[in-house]
């Protein structure tokens, strides 16, 4: 019965149930309940929260690109046939050739080098390292549903989150579970907005 363990699902879904909770921890409505000055008890100022949000976007272009580079490297390693893999004698050369195909600039390298990229060789994320970023798309889009309601504590939506995300793992395909909670497929715009990558679509 391990396939019916609440949040069970495919690798590129299982990070989502935990990651979405992180949005509440940093929400102003939540911060005002626990982020108090240790001497005066003053609630954390809204201006400081705004500065913290702006600071969190520092270097997001680099961070996002290095992560995608690692994900592409992972996929390319696991797309090799046995004979192709056995013919490789220089992992760094393989990395360089692989990432050159995608136009990665010299100033940005993948987050992990192959020799210590344990996630994809011994950590259960073989050809699945991209799952972290895909889960961030899900959690950003999912939390945006609460923002659209104008209430991050919306009881009706919270009940759907509980029922379809935290109680129904393995009962139905993950994409169906997500749609039952959100009411639509996920989009990338909320994550772009959170990371500071504003576009005409995200600004609208």
Task: Provide tags for this entry.
204 residues, mainly alpha, 13 helices, 57% helix
What does this structure look like?
- The N and C termini lie far apart (44 Å).
- The longest helix is centred in the middle third of the chain and has 19 residues, at 60-78.
- The protein is built from 13 helices and no strands.
- Helix 10 (155-166) runs antiparallel to helix 11 (174-182).
- With 204 residues, the protein is mainly α.
In short:
With 204 residues, the chain is mainly α.
Q: Helices, strands, pairings?
A:
Elements: H1 16-19, H2 21-25, H3 28-34, H4 46-56, H5 60-78, H6 82-86, H7 91-100, H8 118-122, H9 131-149, H10 155-166, H11 174-182, H12 189-194, H13 200-203
Q: Residue ranges: pLDDT <50 for 5 or more in a row?
A: none
Q: Which radius of gyration do the C-alpha atoms yield? A: 20 Å
| Overall morphology | globular
Number of separate strands: 0
What pattern of helices and strands is seen along the backbone?
HHHHHHHHHHHHH
Please indicate the percent range of residues in DSSP E strands (runs of 2 or more).
under 5%
- Helicity level, as a percent range? 55-70%
Distance between the termini: 44 Å
- What is the subunit organization of this protein? single chain
Category from helices, strands and their pairing:
mainly alpha
Number of helices: 13
